[in-house]
Design a protein that fits this description.
- By secondary structure, the chain is an alpha+beta fold.
- It has one domain: Gcn5-related N-acetyltransferase (GNAT) (Aminopeptidase), CATH 3.40.630.30.
- Strand 4, helix 2 and strand 5 form a beta-alpha-beta unit.
- The radius of gyration is 14 Å and the shape is globular.
- It starts with a strand and ends in a 6-residue tail after the last strand.
- The chain binds coenzyme A.
- The site of coenzyme A has 17 residues, from strand 4, helix 2 and helix 3.
- Coenzyme A binds next to strand 4, helix 2 and helix 3.
Amino acid sequence: MQPSITPVTEADDLLPLLRACDLPVADIAPSQSQQFFALRDDRGLLGVVGLELMQDLALLRSLAVDPAHRGKGLATELVAFCETRAREQGVQRLFLLTTTAARYFSRLGYQPADKCAAPPAIQATAQFAGLCPASSSLLYKSLGRPRP
Ligand SMILES: CC(C)(COP(=O)(O)OP(=O)(O)OC[C@H]1O[C@@H](n2cnc3c(N)ncnc32)[C@H](O)[C@@H]1OP(=O)(O)O)[C@@H](O)C(=O)NCCC(=O)NCCS
């Protein structure tokens, strides 16, 4: 079975991987505005990514790949999938917070953003407001309009 990315309605089986990667789980509750996508094959869960939607803004969060499957482009695939989903839902700017992977995301076209000048909707997310350490960096990418 080829790995495939599918939407998640029940987050329970994502939590061990997210916890093992030291990513916040306290606010996870999949919904229309908090979407999670899992990359799986017949061996099980390989990776996960999340998207918190706020009209034309969104927060990419919870990007994690099982350590046994890193370095094969799986996170790049998950980020691209998430960006497409975001664009399809009218998102024009995608933000993220990270303590360890700013360099990784800059390779994928994300730019540093001033946390003090972040849009109020982004500042109001649980991740921004406290779950992510104060030392985390804020990055963003402009997605533009959905492709026809
Ligand atoms: C960051 C992470 C998602 C990357 O997953 P991955 O599937 O291995 O990534 P890809 O295969 O798409 O990319 C691998 C490349 O990114 C680089 N890379 C991986 N993590 C990196 C990091 N934290 N900082 C800088 N570069 C990184 C690798 O060295 C590799 O480089 P190469 O192509 O020159 O060899 C994975 O390491 C992970 O789950 N980390 C723990 C959770 C985390 O930090 N999430 C991000 C914050 S939300």
